[in-house]
Structure formats: C-alpha cells, structure tokens
Specification:
The protein is an alpha+beta fold and 48 residues long. The chain is built from one helix and four strands; from the N terminus they run αββββ. It has a domain of 27 residues.
Length: 48
C-alpha cells in the first residue's frame, strides 16, 4: 500500500511538472499531524 502510493504520487507529479514546467510552490506544503502516515493537507502552487 504505502510503497505503491509513493510510486503513484511520483508518477503523477512528474507528469504534472512535464505538462506545466513553470509550476512552483508559493509556500511550504502543510503536513497533517498523523501518527502513522504523512499526509499533505495543503499544497499552494503558482503557475508562473
């Protein structure tokens, strides 16, 4: 489960940045406070 989710996210982000190469983070990602799994609860981006 966890390894597959990591690979899926990597593939998704690679495709996103290939399609929109000027994307950038406007501030650091917000990580939800979880005990077992890390979860991005907010990701602020800009399409310059």
């Amino acid at each position: 489960g966890n390894a597959l989710a990591r690979i899926e996210a990597q593939i998704a982000f690679q495709g996103l940045f290939q399609r929109f190469p000027k994307l950038s983070l406007t501030r650091p990602a917000t990580i939800a406070p979880r005990l077992r799994f890390r979860e991005v609860s907010a990701l602020h981006i800009s399409k310059n």
